[in-house]
Amino acid sequence: MSWCDGQTRTLASSAPPPVRVSRLCKAFGQRDLISGLDLQVPPGARLGIIGPAAAGKSVLLKLLCGLLRADSGQVRIGEHIVTELAEPALMAVRRRIGMLFQNHALFDFLSVAENVAFPLVRRGGLAQGEIDRRVRDRLRAVGLAGSEGAMPSELSGGMKKRVGIARATIARPAIVIYDEPTAGLDPVTTSKVYDLIRADQDQTGCTIIAVSSDVEALVRFADTIAMLDGGALSYVGPAAGARDAADQVVRRFVRGEIEEA
């Protein structure tokens, strides 16, 4: 399934590559989580992925960036076929991808500044002074100026999410993947987190792919919604039309008439 929302965002650098998924399959044991999935994500899109619990949403995100290997099928990011690359080549592709993992995934033994700087340090090529400057800028952008020396254990859930966003976006990746960016947050904090993500995309023109069990908030944020259920996509289309989708299950799920779990 594919779409184009007709919008082109202003890019800070080069245009992000399109993401194309063809006949993708992934099973764990006897259970097929992803079964023959097709999807195209155009540059600069804001895609929200929804679906029942354990439908394979997080698995799909990991397949997109090569953190999991597909059983068959293809993931292509620009000219790179992710599903055919060895680890060294995958590392080069991942430099164009930022990812916010579930449950923050901050290193508890590193300070806030060290967590945010990690992608730049790992990539190399920058002087420490430049890294420090970029970290300060990113933390200021997410409303955490002055928190450089704090440890993750000292932060609230919302603050940890914002540190995670700063880390995922500090290298200005072309594609940013968010796995449950607002899980466990109250509605006000959820709104602020999505405002941060939206503002960053408006500045950089990156492509966003986000998974969330907070369907209502994700539908408000995304340009396009894809619903994953039974290993396949039962809906891919404008977020505004998801509440009135022809598929009754999709329609009821988006309206909250069917619980995720």
Summarize this structure briefly:
The chain has 261 residues and is an alpha/beta fold.
Q: Total number of β-strand segments?
A: 10
Shape: globular
Question: How many independent structural domains?
Answer: 2
Biggest sheet strand line-up: 6-7-8-3-9-10
Query: What fraction of the residues are assigned to beta strands by DSSP?
Result: 15-25%
- Given helix and strand content, the structural type is alpha/beta
Mean pLDDT: 88
**CATH fold-level name of the largest domain:** Rossmann fold
Biggest beta sheet summary: 6 strands, mixed
Helix content: 25-40%
Topology of helices and strands:
Blueprint: E1 19-28, E2 31-41, E3 46-50, H1 57-64, E4 72-77, E5 80-81, H2 87-94, E6 97-100, H3 112-123, H4 128-141, H5 157-169, E7 175-179, H6 187-204, E8 207-211, H7 215-221, E9 224-229, E10 232-238, H8 248-254
Parallel strand pairs: 3-8, 3-9, 6-7, 7-8
Antiparallel strand pairs: 1-2, 1-4, 4-5, 9-10
Helix pairs in contact: 3-4, 3-5, 4-5, 5-6
